[in-house]
Specification:
Elements: H1 3-34, H2 39-56, H3 64-84, H4 93-112, H5 118-127, H6 135-154, H7 156-164, H8 166-171, H9 176-217, H10 221-246, H11 250-273, H12 277-308, H13 315-318, H14 333-338, H15 350-363, H16 367-380, H17 382-393, H18 399-413, H19 428-441
Helix pairs in contact: 1-6, 1-7, 1-9, 1-10, 2-3, 2-4, 2-9, 3-9, 5-9, 6-9, 9-10, 9-11, 10-11, 11-12, 15-16, 15-17, 16-17, 16-18, 17-18, 17-19
Length: 445
């Protein structure tokens, strides 16, 4: 893919990351000061639970109805967290947060067994799909962040004094319970809208890691915000670029980039503040070498033990399971084509070829691979391929891949089909375009 195509593909996810780093770095500073590190995981799990409950009630994921259902459940959790913080409580608030997380996670596991494609939903909730984010999502996140940002800016003194010194807040006559509820509610709204694209794990890292790195460097709030945003943005750009280059999941790689950034910042700060920097640098290098040697030894022992049991090292890494969502299976398109749903149609069988491509499309959740499958189908049989193209577009894929399929349809028709990829498929202009393609090729509605 050309450089311009790569930039076009990744620019929406980059813009979303910029927004998330800015907002979550600020909220992360509050979380660090309040010593409630796992509140993000708890609220994110509550939001995910709300989406699962909505799904079982017939509300599709990633819709406005599903979002507001999650926000409502998050508001209830915000009330619980606000009420759990009392001046004479014998139970740490972090314990309450941990219990809420565990209960929500257990409930989600119970509900996921009843949901169709439960494993895929779990993966989507944990890791998200930030690389395939659409501009509509970026606009929604920007609007929500702007509202929450203005709210926190107007009442910044109240929020900060409660986070830094709750006794001082009481002495000033602030209603700590009310302001705690407003903090957790606004926090929960941000988490809910973020988890849908980035996943629970990445949102947690975006919240905590920049704040931790910034706290290592400076104690001034403004400087913490600047350092947290800059370091977070650098880690995210690195993770996204490596994700695309290595064809791996973007969320986990961004988390890995943050892990490397944390280690580097910790080492640099330790050396910079040491009285004897040369000795500190030597100690750091010695510790790094020791860890590397320990990992190498552990890996070697593991391979030796595995070989005694007749195991094949890297078997699962080199040959991933074919039906694992999101993985690039070693099973080729031809292998999938040979056994769609147990059938073995010949290559000359038109119905079999159509079933083959439909099976391949359903088996993949990677829009890059899906667009390639549609392209193959259009080359093999323009009529059935056009039907598959419309089916692909109906799921509102990322604009870059939608446009590539639309370009092929335009070439097939020898005239513009009329699809506008920046609009959802159910928009009248795209419905008319789909009808035009079906009429031109004699496809049934």
């Amino acid at each position: 893919m050309e450089l311009t195509g790569v930039v076009q593909l990744m620019f929406p996810s980059f813009c979303l990351c910029v927004l998330m780093v800015g907002m979550l770095s600020y909220l992360g500073i509050h979380v660090i000061k309040r010593e409630i590190i796992f509140v993000d995981l708890a609220l994110a799990q509550i939001a995910a639970l709300g989406a699962l409950v909505a799904l079982l009630l017939g509300i599709p994921l990633h819709t406005q109805a599903s979002y507001w259902f999650s926000v409502a459940l998050t508001a209830l959790a915000a009330a619980v967290f606000a009420l759990s913080r009392t001046r004479e409580s014998r139970v740490p608030q972090e314990a309450i947060i941990g219990l809420v997380y565990a209960i929500a996670a257990a409930a989600a596991i119970i509900l996921i067994d009843k949901a169709p494609h439960g494993a895929e939903h779990i993966k989507d909730i944990l890791t998200g799909s930030i690389l395939w984010v659409k501009w509509q999502t970026v606009a929604l996140v920007a609007a929500v962040y702007a509202l929450v940002g203005v709210f926190h800016f107007v009442f910044r003194h109240n929020f900060m004094v409660i986070s830094e010194d709750v006794e001082k807040a009481h002495s000033k006559g602030l209603n700590v319970g009310l302001w705690d509820f407003l903090f957790y509610l606004s926090f929960g709204v941000v988490i809910t809208v973020s988890v849908g694209s980035a996943g629970v794990l990445l949102v947690f890292v975006l919240l905590v890691a920049p704040a931790v790195m910034a706290a290592m460097i400076t104690s001034r709030l403004f400087h913490q915000l600047v350092f947290g945003w800059a370091l977070g943005l650098a880690a995210i750009v690195t993770g996204l670029v490596v994700s695309y280059a290595a064809d791996l999941s973007s969320g986990p790689l961004v988390i890995g980039a943050y892990a490397v950034a944390l280690i580097v910042v910790s080492a640099v700060v330790y050396i910079a503040r040491a009285d004897d920097r040369a000795r500190a640098a030597a100690r750091t290098a010695c510790v790094a070498a020791s860890f590397a040697a320990g990992l190498a030894l552990l890996f070697g022992v593991g391979r030796a033990i595995g070989s005694r049991f007749g195991a094949q090292p890297h078997a699962h890494l080199d040959h991933p399971v074919a039906d694992t969502p999101g993985d690039h299976s070693s099973t080729s398109h031809d292998d999938l084509a040979a056994h769609p749903s147990g059938a073995e149609p010949s290559d000359t069988d038109e119905a079999g070829a159509r079933l083959r491509f439909e099976t391949m499309l359903d088996a993949s959740d990677d829009p890059f691979e899906q667009a390639d499958i549609v392209s193959q189908a259009l080359a093999a049989d323009p009529t059935s391929g056009a039907a598959l193209a419309i089916r692909f577009l109906a799921h509102d894929p990322p604009d870059f891949f939608a446009q590539s399929v639309v370009d092929e349809l335009d070439a097939l028709l020898s005239e513009p089909s009329g699809f506008v990829v920046s609009q959802p498929f159910d928009h009248p202009v795209n419905q008319q375009a789909a009808a035009r393609v079906r009429a031109h090729l004699g496809l049934a509605d």
